[in-house]
Amino acid sequence: MTDAVGLVLEAVEKRFGDHQALAGVDLTVRPGEFFTLLGPSGCGKTTLLRVVAGFERPDAGTVSLGGNDLAGVPPHKRDIGLVFQSYALFPHLDVAENVAFGLVERGLGRAEREEQVRLSLARVRLSDLGERAPSELSGGQQQRVGIARALAIGPQLLLMDEPLSNLDAKLRLTMREEIRALQQADGTTTIYVTHDQEEALAISDRIAVLSEGRIEQVGTPWEIYRRPTTIFVAGFVGQISWVPAEQIPELAGAASQVGFRPEELRLVSERPSGPALEGQVAKISFTGARLRVQVEVKGGLSLLVDEHRPDPTRWAVAGESEGEGALKVGSSVWVELPAEGGHPFDASGARLG
Amino acid sequence: MSAPAWRDPWAYVLALGYALVATLLLWPLANVAYQATTGGGEVSIWSDPSLGVALRHSLVVSALGALGATALGLPLALLCARIKIPASGLLTALATLCLLSPPFVGAYAWILLLGQQGVLRLLLADLGLPAPSIYGAFGIVIVFSTQYFPLVFLLTRGALEAQDPALEEAARSLGATGWRRLVRVTLPLVLPSLSGGMLLAFVMALANFGTPMVLGRNYRVLPTLAYDLFTSEVAQTQPDAAAGVCLLMILIASLALGLQKYVSGRRSVVSSSLRRTPPRALPGWRGRLAAFAAWGIVLGALTPLLTVVAFSFRNTNGPVFTPGVGLGSYRAVLHGVSRAIGNSLVYSLLAAIAIAFLGALLGAAIERRRGLASKVLDGLLLLPYLVPGLVLGIGFVLGFQSAPRWFMGSGAVLVFVYLIRRLPYAVRANTAILAQLDVQVEEAAKSLGASPIRAFFRATLPLMTPGVIAGAVLGWVTAIGELSATIVLYEGGTVTMPVQIYHQVMDGALGPAGALSTLLLGATGAALLLVERVRAERV
Fold it and tell me: What is the pTM of this model?
């Protein structure tokens, strides 16, 4: 466990033909941090990762690792470990040989190499599979080999490019816990790329949300979700319903629109005392842990409302109540808005308050 | 849940495939084997010292030819797969032309360059330099290398391009650069394709009859030995000895195949990724050097063929070139041997049509009706890869000597030989395409009410068409240039262009030989352009 180092990017730009992949990115990743680049496909997050790895040369700006400028340093001299979406295990080598690959390049002696391979495989709990071929492993195991291979060289920085997107949903959940635990134990500064916002929230110390080659917001998962600073971040991370200021003058203040998370809204049958909007139930979807209801409000507006632990006697979809008051598609309801005001944004897209 | 066999149309297609293989492949080969083991010659071939010499010669020139092909093809593949080379489409087409040019035209071209009166020899003599003799092992290896390098090139480049780019990036990030990455990652990953290309080059060199016949003189290899024993004009023919040599050739080819499978098959290196490694632009002098090297290899290999074309316009008087240029050679060819031209066109066209039709049907039957029957047929169709044309020709003579005249004495026998020699290539290409096509397309057609055969013709065949056409054109190209089986099967009335060229070269009629070769090259080039057009439309 070496002393962790930080990464600093200043005004990094990259253009592919007509496409501005990175439009001036400033970023500071702290030593030992688990840092995630989050954004939709084509937002530039993978390009940014490849610039850091040294596979793409930035058109402008600087990248420095632990205080050293990386300009002109080729990928193999950067001491950066890489984990790939497609695993990129060498199919002609067995698992142990894969993990030893970088150690051979570093000229380690045989005994030292074998010890390092043994330790690395033990860390990803694959000690018994050293002699297997990559094709004999499951997807999750293959990616664990990929991680062991990247960590074996003792990199100053670990880069992971959507490492879980080739795995099935259930495995993704356990693997992300494992990656998080591994990084916490190891302390290697890590940059993780994903388009999955839930994954980003669950795994990261801090997140940078990217859109169209720009950084929209950098913050902890809590800050990103609870206090999105741009309309893009508010809409990309989690669900949000927007209400124009003129429909809720008592809440809007100087804002031109106010956003509400589904769990911040409440469905009631009578008009509540606080701020509220009246509408009809348009869609009900039951996903097990919660009930998500789409309510059509006058003015063509549509609000998403979550009910956690829904009361079966209140909902016709539950099939347990035929009562008069049971809610179904078409029922009239009131949506109660939170008194503390939701997420207000002005006309320029900046957050107020 | 397959239908009962009598209701399954693919069962009939498979039956037809077995009938073809049994008649046109197994029966002739069985006759060769029978003749070799029970023939009543006075002297056994196995104790004849000429066999050992020819065997050694064959192994030497085939192995060196395969190595030479690798020395040209592997660097070319690495250059073209990783670096953007200008006009790389044209480069590929020209390389393919080297491969598919009629086998002995290259040999003939080298005679024009380095033979007794060769231009290059005379040029070197003017400078006071000795020129190597093109006759013997040296010339044969040169011709093999420059003809078969595209096999190594095309197969290896395909594998390099299909590689997941993340693999080389992983190697780089772990510290392996330049040569180390090439040796530790890139080459091991393409080893199956690389060794497959080398194997094909070796097997085709081993079977090559025209080149050692034209250039070998006293340097006899197995095919020329077999030919001499079978058709000897001076001594008594020895069909049993010839059959023995044939068996030996098949045995060597099979051993080579086994060795290649062993070398490449120890670990699966199939990439699961759908991403491909694109060639990247390399600016500056390094990029220009790469382009220069790639084009240098291809143009160098093409020079002999261009020489043939150029010389076909020179005036000749028998074996001597006279000053001036003209179309005299072409006039002589069109008047003298128009029958050969007509025969070649008709036979190769009929063979190509049959190859297209049967190749599509058999390919579909093998891929869509998985089972023991289709597996065995697929295995049997490997045989023509290993059986030299001369061997098959001798097998036809032995097996069908009592067949009616309308078969053995007509072009029909040639059409059938061309068909069975090239059919496996078309079947393989089609099964490969079908394996990639989604079965659900055909299932959707069936669910909409199409019978299995109609579903195939309406939903699947249209998707296969470009591949089928390409296979047919390639079949046509090889059929029109076929020499080694034709040479033992043709009769006066069924003479073809390659046979005619062969005799002209042996007789020293270099002018007409050049004109005929140019016509063949032109036809081959035009056909390859057609294939490229079909491929381009498909994308």
Answer: 0.82
